Amino acid sequence: MSPKIVSKTTFASDRTVQVRMKAITAGPNSWYAPWISGKYVDTANNALVVLHTTGLLELSVTQGGSTSSYTTQTSLNVYDWHTVKMAFVGDNLKVYVDDTLYLDRTDAKIGAIGASQIRLASWGPTHAHFDDAVIDDTDGKPDLVFMWLNDASTTNEMYYRVAWNVDGNDNVCGTCWSVVKWTPGKGWFSSSATIGPTSKGAGAAIADLNNNGHLELVFTYMNAPVWRQ
């Protein structure tokens, strides 16, 4: 039985996986070494990288039980710390070690695996260490959030709309817009989405407040009731 760690989160198909790894002890076979599965569904559907004890760097892509293997010989020592990065885009996968590109392969199996988990494993009797795992499944294109305050003569309301995948010319495609939404009421305003009869300003900010990998929207406003002006 090989010890392994599998992420609870399923990440988008396009992602970059970066992990530091080294072998403490290795087994009798050269592939008894640390394994990094940048995509993992099960043993029949995964994309993994292993640095053999011989310095051979191997990329193995399995989809539906069919496997393609790609290798390149290196002078890397598996007993030293190395940073391995797997960059998935569509059917293409680039494998870097210590910021050097070693493998660049396009294979339909890579994209066909789709959204999946991540797995780190010490194969066979290997004792391996992993550290500083980083997974980025964003598309690298900036997004925009528009928020505005309707300062009506009666009740006021905040609205927002999201645009994503802004290109280098600051253009947004016609299908890259969310519908217009309004902020839900909370606390004293929970009976509706209104925020008061008179407002003097509002703002919005984006942050991952609870460190769960998802961004939250924070809305603020300045209420200016007539009796306090």
Would you spell out the secondary-structure blueprint of this structure?
Layout: E1 4-6, E2 15-25, E3 34-42, E4 45-51, E5 56-63, E6 66-73, E7 82-89, E8 92-97, E9 100-106, H1 108-113, E10 117-122, E11 127-136, E12 144-150, E13 157-163, E14 181-182, E15 199-207, E16 216-223
Antiparallel strand pairs: 1-10, 2-7, 2-11, 3-4, 3-10, 4-5, 5-6, 7-8, 8-9, 12-13, 13-14, 15-16
Question: Overview of this structure, please?
Answer:
- The structure is a single chain.
- It contains one helix and 16 strands.
- With 229 residues, it is mainly β.
- Strands 1-10-3-4-5-6 form a six-stranded antiparallel beta sheet. Strands 9-8-7-2-11 form a five-stranded antiparallel beta sheet. It has a three-stranded antiparallel beta sheet with strand order 12-13-14, with no helix packed on it.
- The longest helix has 6 residues, at 108-113.
- The protein is elongated.
- Mean pLDDT is 82; it is low at 185-193.
List the uncertain runs.
Answer: 185-193
- The structural class is mainly beta
Shape: elongated
Report mean pLDDT, rounded to a whole number. Answer: 82
- Physical arrangement of strands within the biggest beta sheet: 1-10-3-4-5-6
Query: How many H/I helical runs?
Result: 1
**Cα Rg:** 25 Å
Q: What is the number of beta strands?
A: 16
Note the gap between the termini.
Answer: 72 Å
* Largest β sheet strand count, sense and barrel closure: 6 strands, antiparallel
Strand residue content: over 45%
Helical amount among residues, as a percent range?
under 10%
Q: What pattern of helices and strands is seen along the backbone?
A: EEEEEEEEEHEEEEEEE
Oligomeric state, counting identical vs distinct chains: single chain
